[in-house]
Amino acid sequence: MNLLPECSDSDGKTLYPLYLQITYNRKNTQIRSKYGKYYENLNDQEIRDILLFECSLAEKLVRCEINNTKKEYSLAGLGGRYEVYATSIAIVIGEYLIGKMKFELKRMNSPFYDILNFENKRKYFEDFYNASLLLFKDFDKKISKEFKHEINIYQLYRDFEPISMGGYNFPTITDWIYGNYKQQFEQKLGRVFKNNNQIVETIEFIDKLIHARLQTIKK
């Protein structure tokens, strides 16, 4: 696969995107790395960690798809499916909450709304949330009870799965749908909640968001 450069760094060095090559039944396909950035060559130290993580994810997805289809398996469309299935669960919840936060801030009609750059994909929900607490007076008191409850669920999830700076070892949609992470997380909740209804509610909330994200896969 001959890649074309897509950008350059501050020194003018040509940079290339990162792709994975998947082989099944003697047929190959290339899918774009979800977490890779742009690189001058394959000697970049970060590439090794990304490839170990993403190749494992892609292999898991392909194996599970093979096991769950009665038809002859095809790699066609794998890139689009992988893009969604490789998404971090924390990102799924966080992006939903960012959308909810935008709605809440517009409802408050604050003149400071435009200060927050919601288009910055390098920021997590907690970055926007903490900024909102500083920027908007009584923000925590003005948001809806439902939104506050959903934030609490996210914060609980982050307690179990804290952000790892530069690390590539976090639960994804693939782990939730095809792996045993959903059951593992439910067990973790059991150590926090005595009321089973709270466990069920939390699992159902995350499950709903994940299945909504799966609906974005182009058929």
Domain count? 2
Low-confidence stretches: none
Proportion of residues in helical segments: 40-55%
- Strands of the largest sheet, in order across it? 1-2-5
Query: What's the count of strands?
Result: 5
> How would a textbook summarize the main sheet?
3 strands, antiparallel
Class by alpha and beta content: mainly alpha
The number of helical runs is 9
- N to C succession of SSEs: EEEEEHHHHHHHHH
Structural overview:
This protein has about 220 residues and is mainly alpha-helical. It folds into two domains: about 5-75, no CATH class; about 90-215, no CATH class. The chain contains nine helices and five strands; from the N terminus they run βββββααααααααα. The chain has helices spanning about 45-65, 80-85, 90-110, 125-135, 140, 145-160, 175, 180-190, 195-215, and strands at about 5-10, 15, 20-25, 25-30, 40. Strands 1-2-5 form a three-stranded antiparallel β-sheet, with no helix packed on it. Strands 3-4 form a two-stranded antiparallel sheet. A hairpin with a 2-residue loop joins strand 3 (about 20-25) and strand 4 (about 25-30). Helix 3 runs parallel beside helix 4 and helix 3 (about 90-110) runs antiparallel to helix 6 (about 145-160). It is globular and about 60 Å long. The protein starts with 6 loop residues before the first strand and ends in a 5-residue tail after the last helix.
